Amino acid sequence: MKKCEIITIGDELLIGQVVDTNSAWMAEKLNENGIELFQITSVHDDREHIIAALNEAFSRADIVLTTGGLGPTKDDITKQVLCEYFDTQLIEDTSVRAHIHELYKERPDVLNRLTATQWLVPQNAEILPNRVGSAPLMVFHKDDKLLACMPGVPYEMKIAMEEQILPYIESRIKSQESGEIIHRTLQVTGIAESSLAILLENFENSMPAGLHLAYLPKDGIIRLRLSSYGELTETQMTQYFDQLKELTKDYLIAETDDPIEVIVGNILKARHQTIATAESCTGGKLASLLNKHAGSSAFYFGSIISYDNSVKEHLLGVPEEMIKAHGVVSEEVVRVMAESVRKQIGTDYAIATSGIAGPTGGSKEKPVGTVWIAWATPEGTTAECFHLGKLREQITDRACMKALVGMIKRLEVRS
């Protein structure tokens, strides 16, 4: 099985100015394509640092992927360092030049002396098209190993990986004799990670050497991922996955690795049904999740973010007397919020949230982390109270997951 390493280049990654989301996305795609990721390294825009990282990566891996440092400014030194590393020089590439002129034909101000450096490429590199950006994609060969260099801009990198780099690797270097990487994931909730580990102890002890089980907890949901790196067949993996499903059936909410909001959306789209949200403590985060993915307009209609009490009263019709009697964070209030937004927006379902995200505002009766969630459905409205920790972001993230998991359970009841 071919091993791969990723090197992300840029000072901004090492001072926390930019979060490296590229590596996680690339790792997922590499696994999908049967390439084992061995290590991820981030380095400064520094000659010695880049060269050292390349030497180390080539000592361990068959494929090295880099992102970053390909821009036209003085701090982007990757091309120059690669020329030194591969003992070559920069030359003008007419196809890259033509592409850049076409890319910026509506923006002539961008075509300046710095942009012109983008069509200078290492002479011994194989150049692949960058459909959406000016930085050319470069491939180098070192003995029987390969280096592919991509821009650091995430959307450019993703298109480059999917349209150019992965197909190139598939056709030129990926071993046809390697066993297949197989992953199977299910998601559970309502059980602590330690309790789940005890429940699965005998199962784990009985697994063959080539099978691995990972626990991936986040916001009250635990993903259980079974992985085989060329050791098991699809049939064997299915047998173990079925055992895992049977053992966790009381807590199981999904048999895929899809985000919870995608699962909700897929169920609603399949049924030609719709949903809306009314949010207080989550402040639009739930709405953002539901419309995050392409195709969400088929099932998600809108939201009323009623952070202030006046919005709850005037837009959602929550009686002032109810708020005074029960408080904003109460079953009575979230029920009205959910029912009102469902009626006003005209959807099949609605979810409402109201809670105390902190760090202030809690009381002995309702401490920070108290969240009420209501689900309005064609069969009626139900509500539950949760205690979701003490950290503000943690509370709102967990509240969104509780809201979506609760929606899945109510949709499954109607199946």
Q: Total number of helical segments? A: 15
CATH class designation of the largest domain: Alpha Beta
How many extended strands?
Answer: 17
What oligomeric state is this? Answer: single chain
List keywords for this structure.
415 residues; alpha/beta; Molybdenum Cofactor Biosythetic Enzyme, Chain A; Alpha-Beta Plaits; six-stranded mixed sheet; five-stranded mixed sheet; 15 helices; 17 strands; globular
Summarize the structure.
The protein is of the alpha/beta class. Helices cover 39% and strands 25% of the residues. The protein has 3 domains: 3-172, MoaB/Mog-like domain (Molybdenum Cofactor Biosythetic Enzyme, Chain A); 181-254, Alpha-Beta Plaits (2-Layer Sandwich), CATH 3.30.70.2860; 260-413, Maf protein (Alpha-Beta Complex).
Plain-language structure description:
The strands form 4 sheets. The chain has a 6-stranded mixed beta sheet, with helices on both faces. The protein has a 5-stranded mixed beta sheet with strand order 14-13-15-16-17, sandwiched between helices. Strand 6 and strand 7 (137-142) form a beta hairpin. It has 3 domains: 3-172, Molybdenum Cofactor Biosythetic Enzyme, Chain A (3-Layer(aba) Sandwich), CATH 3.40.980; 181-254, Alpha-Beta Plaits; 260-413, Maf protein, CATH 3.90.950. The protein is built from 15 helices and 17 strands. It is 39% helix and 25% strand. It has 415 residues and is of the alpha/beta class.
